[in-house]
From TrEMBL:
It holds the Pfam family ADH_N. Its EC number is 1.1.1.14. It comes from Actinobacillus delphinicola. Residues 8-342 form the Enoyl reductase (ER) domain. Belongs to the zinc-containing alcohol dehydrogenase family. This is Alcohol dehydrogenase. It is an enzyme of class 1 (oxidoreductase). One of its GO terms (molecular function) is zinc ion binding. Keywords: Metal-binding, Oxidoreductase, Zinc. Its cofactor is Zn(2+). It comes from the Bacteria.
Length: 345
């Protein structure tokens, strides 16, 4: 089969590799129909995860058709159309029992990271009963890809961890796919002000179409720009959705006393924590990797057309073009790219 294989920093290649097989009775083999590229994949490509093993197939998002089922799998059968969760969960360890599926002792984020992933024609999914979701007929396959990772990530680690409440003023720093997913799902909780912060004017325009009340570029005095919208104290919730020191710094600058900073971005280097200014502010600061425990709820919302998720999809490529797709996503601002769909059929 064809698959995108990692060989080290800035070294990936589309190759012919062996098709996966059932290894444990809880496995299934899924024939990938559509997958995508995540910012985390770009981080791996650029060397953020130096412990990655040479030869791993990248990717942790996608939808497909169940091809083969292990003997212990009870919830899925051959021919089922499924969403592959970015998080693999055994369902029985101590972390899974707390719904901390991200830290499953025999799973978590392993696809495209510790084991072969979804940027391929086929993938082996361990613990399938707890790591796949059947796609309702009402959800388009391309939209379903957004439920693999970005929608639950933006919702759980951004909106829920940020404790967004009715009437809040919130700022989302970073209008990439996860930041826009946080924007969409924040509206479930009726904040009064949603400020999107980004350098990309095209992304800011899309954010306003998707429900942002204000769009701000982080140039000049960003604290003053936010103060002109919400007052001098700042926002109730700052959601950091990029993962670089500059956006973390903005989050610390603009949050009010008693507020929340929810870090969603994947950081590859240390940041400065301004504890000398923040110790007195009674802040709640959260970090996290998505657990996907809200995916079923988000599926229902998407199925009833409550979320215009399809607007996040900007580009389409075939699997044979995936190297070019990476180049496009690496130059997202120039290419006006938000979310890319890779057709593997």
């Amino acid at each position: 089969m064809k698959a995108l294989v990692y060989h080290g920093d800035h070294n990936i290649a589309l190759e012919e590799v062996q098709k996966p097989v059932i290894e444990k009775p809880t496995d299934v083999i899924v024939r990938i129909t559509k997958t995508t590229i995540c910012g985390t994949d770009l981080g791996i490509y650029k060397g953020k995860n130096l412990y990655m093993r040479d030869g791993i197939i990248l990717g942790h998002e996608g939808v497909g058709i169940v091809e083969e089922v292990g003997s212990s799998v009870s919830q899925f059968k051959k021919g089922d159309k499924v969403i592959i969760s970015c998080i693999t969960a055994c369902g029985s360890c101590d972390y899974c029992k707390k719904q901390l599926y991200a830290h499953c002792r025999d799973g978590g984020w392993i696809l495209g990271h510790m084991i072969d992933g979804t940027q391929a024609e086929y993938v082996r999914v361990p613990h399938a009963d707890n790591s796949l979701f059947k796609i309702p007929n009402e959800i388009d396959d391309e939209v379903a890809v957004m439920l693999s990772d970005i929608l639950p990530t933006g919702h759980e680690i951004g909106v829920q961890y940020g404790n967004v409440k009715p009437g809040d003023a919130i700022a989302i720093i970073g209008a990439g796919p996860v930041g826009l997913a946080a924007l969409l799902t924040a509206q479930f909780y009726s904040p009064s002000i949603i400020i999107m912060v980004d350098l990309d004017e095209n992304r800011l325009q899309l954010a306003k179409e998707l429900g942002a009340t204000h769009a701000v570029t982080p140039t000049g005095d960003i604290k003053q720009k936010i103060a002109e919208i919400v007052g001098p104290d700042g926002v109730d919730v700052a959601i950091e959705a990029v993962g670089i020191p500059a956006t973390w710094d903005i989050s610390q600058e603009i949050v009010k006393p008693g507020g929340h900073i929810a870090n969603v971005g994947v950081h590859g280097k240390p940041v400065e924590f301004q504890i000398q200014d923040l110790w007195i502010k009674n802040l709640t600061i959260t970090t996290g990797l998505v657990n996907t425990n809200t995916t079923p709820m988000l599926m229902r919302a998407v199925a009833t057309n409550k979320l215009p998720v399809g607007k996040l999809i900007t580009h389409h490529f075939d699997l044979d073009q995936i190297r070019h797709a990476y180049d496009v996503f690496l130059n997202a601002s120039k290419e006006n790219a938000i979310k890319i769909i890779i057709n593997a059929d």
